[in-house]
Amino acid sequence: MKFVTKIGLILISLSFANLLENLIFSTISAYYTVNMGFMQDSENWRYGIYVTYLHNRETRLLVDLKESSKIGIIAISQSQIEELLAGDEVPYFACFNFTGGLDKTLGRVDRGIYIFIFDSTNRDQVARFQLVQSGFEFDTLYIDIVLLALGLTLALLPILNHYFKEGLKWTRS
Questions:
Q1: Which residue, of 53, 64, 88, 100, has the greatest Cβ tally within 10 A?
Q2: Sequence ranges of the domains in the chain
């Protein structure tokens, strides 16, 4: 029974450690900053591509352009990438066309891989963009609750078993 109690205490510790990590990261915003210069010595000089992994948090997209010119951004999520590779029509998560800076709130995005495709009409364009993620990840909260409940059950099992046996002795006498 001591082994079961130790496993329960380990699960409780893991649950609290994961919850603490999530609380700490919810107060810190994650920034993904890239200077996107468009390739000038290739046939596809108009396009710049950035691939990143985003968490299930509030996400904001900020873009600052070196020069004022027409630029477009298409964001594709992981599930849409799979559709694209299957030969379906080109889907997208978000699409923006602008000539100056951009400040858009994308909201809470699904956890996964995202591709940001930049299309510029100016060969010398540099797009500095940031993805700002902030807030609490609720996906991991469910795992923490399950780990905590399982850990408490395993940790208290020997104590409950002891009291259950003592209770049976009292009712027999």
A1: 64
A2: 2-23+139-172, 28-135
What single-letter DSSP state applies at residue 46? T
pLDDT tens-digit profile of 135-153? 877 777 888 888 889 988 8
Of 58, 69, 56, 60, the closest CA to residue 33 belongs to: 60
In this predicted model, what pLDDT tens digit does every residue of 3-37 receive, in sequence order? 888 888 898 898 888 888 877 777 666 666 666 66
Contact 95, 74 (CB under 8 A): yes
> Rounded mean pLDDT of the chain?
80
CATH top class, domain 28-135? mainly beta
Residues 6+ apart with CB under 8 A from 30: 55, 57, 132, 133, 134
φ, ψ for residue 59, nearest 5 deg: -125, 135
Residue pair 47/116 in contact (Cβ under 8 Å)? The answer is: no
For the entire predicted model, the pTM comes to 0.68
